[in-house]
Sequence to fold (800 residues):
Amino acid sequence: MQIANILLVGVASSPLAKQLERYGYGVVSVLDTASIINVDTPYALMIVDQSLMRDFGPDAAERLYFMNNSVPTAVLIHDPAAIPDPLHRIILDGTFEPVYDHEVQSGFVCSKIDRLFITSQFNKNLKLHQRTFHEKEMLKKELSLREQILKQERVINTNIIGSITAGLIILDTEGLIVLVNEHGRELLDLGDIMGASYVQSLPGEIASVVEALSRETSTTLPHVIERCKIGQRFLEISAFRMLDYQNKPSGILVMVHDVTDQENASVQLYRAEKLATVGTMLSGIAHELRNPLSIISARAQRALASDRDEPARIRKAFESIEAQAQRCASIVNNLLDFTRQTATKAGYHKVADLLDETLTYVDYQNLFDDISVNKEYVPDLAVYGDRSRFVQIFVNLITNAAEAMEGRGTLTIRTRAADAHHTLIEINDTGPGIPPDIEPKIFDPFFTTKEPGKGTGLGLAIVFKIVQQSAGAISYTSRPGKTSFRVELPSAKERTHG
Amino acid sequence: MAERILLVDDEVDFLDVVGEFLEDEGYEMTTAENGRQALAILERQTFDLLLSDINMPGMKGFELLREAAARYPAMRRALITAYDVRDYLYMAKNYDIGNIITKTTPFNFDEIRVLLRTILTGDIFGLGHYIKGTIHTKTIRQAGEIEDAVTTIAESMEEDEHKRKFRQALGEIVVNAFFYGARDERGDQKDKWEFGAELSPREAVIVSWGSDAEKTGASVTDQKGRLTKKEVLYWLERNTTKGSDGLSLGLLDEHGKGLYIARETIDRFIVNVEKGKRTEAVMINYKRGLYDGHRPLWIHEI
Fold:
């Protein structure tokens, strides 16, 4: 007499079936989990082959768990190192009983199955599982519902991944790319790289973050965060190690945030702070220098006035001393102009008027003779602030542009509304562009590319400071043939017509 | 007899070179290196002028001049500094000091010569002290003539970036001289001003202008002499001192803007007053931005 029927799912091992039969169980075999639903013979136990779980993917074990919820189940394990995670979880919590190959070979499997059977009979007080047609129908419905939920969950997951405003890249343990969201593709300008190795398909900056994380041996959830500049964008790259429930690495998750705005803002803040500190310090030094300089100049003048019969070279020396003292003084004065905080007289000004006024101040110079000026103004834009300081911004930017072009090229001045509250003024030149090595320094006080004596290097520092004080912002892009400085100033649209 | 000047500065080198220059100019020079030493010298000897640096260890120039004024009221007093006079306007008002010369680079011997001459002789009026060329003059008796006069003067100036500012300041000063100086109108009652009325020849505002190799200048004189040094210092200080809101105290004042604008935008803005007789505002701009960043304070009352 048979004790009960056992359903073998995907178990190819006939020794197991034979042993079970010899032990008094009836054996029903199906090839896969999908066929379980068609088994009409009642069965009390189920034995599933581990390899099936792999074939079904991560949710197979869960689905099985759902389907068998009243039948004790054992899993035939061939390779303990390759148990899929969900299955492992179910085994650990005692729902599925592991049965190992060596237990089959040694015959120990039967006592294990017996115990399982007896436990299920007594402890759970279950009857033999009799699946009626009706129950099966219910199960089918439940299954399709379950599929729907899974599908929905998948859609939700896809939506979440797609909606994250960061680039998301997931690598498997081999370093192959298993997922890249749309944002990530855009941000990093990636093509179809699914399944490709990260080393070959991701930008070097990101690859090195991943490598840094791989080298990390800490046992707590390690992550590596780095900022870098890729193209025109500043990116924050975070790499996290993904762990399974056993705390084993299951892959690497890389998040890429576009922090260009943030970076620009903090760079501006840093510059402003630096300027303020430097300003205070320099103002003190500049003032102190005025005393000795005036004495040097007084001495040289006196010497020149009294020593009429001195040899020419002595005379030349005094003239040079006087001239150089004057040069120092003009640097000191520029510096004091820069550091002095004058009360601003705020008002509303038409941008076009400010720019045209600026042009009349600068374009009489020979420097502008061979420069053609393009004005692309959006009419009626106005800004709020101190007129003379705005003019100072434009004088500096326009003069720099003309000097960068060495007096030959096209100067394009463009205005438009940046947003509801800001007006954008763009000064474009066709010069050789800002060399990348000097880019970090261009807003520093006293940084200049001009020959000694031609500029004090305060122009852009002054521009930056005024823009800051006017609650505006400044940025630029530069490549050979096109450098563009963009100044955003608070708009005053509503007041220009009133 | 040569006038005697006591020159005080903690910079010995400065005492040496400027002392020597003033000696050559015919003054009898004594020098002191600090305030205490200066006061000690003053006790033994009388001087026509005390000229002191502002920022010295120990007693500062302002304190020295106040002390000296209390003890020797007849002696003329002036300060000299390499620093920004703008930063000292508050002190100037509090210590009632109208004369601060600046140590410029290039060192402006010529200016020191003229300023000391005017303060010592009391011969303060006239653009001719400052401009070594032809001086033109025009008399303004009607408000309608102001714009014309200002335009004429501005047109005569060389084309440079300072011209606009000069014109603006000049306009302010002529309007002030006409309405406040000559006519004594009230700033808060501009709607009641009579623009058609004509000033008598003895009340007319006189404008002069001219230029030399180094500078351009204009002066505006009324024949009333109502303005005082105290007032000028008050208005200048009010427009340079910021209130808690970061804006100047004088922002909404009806008065005082012209004085401030002139001082801020013109290289040299000098006010001479002969009480009850005339007020003169002299405006000098150096060509080529020669003495940028230095604006002496020069207000005379006689």
Summary: Residues 123-131, 494-498 of chain A have pLDDT under 50 and may be disordered.
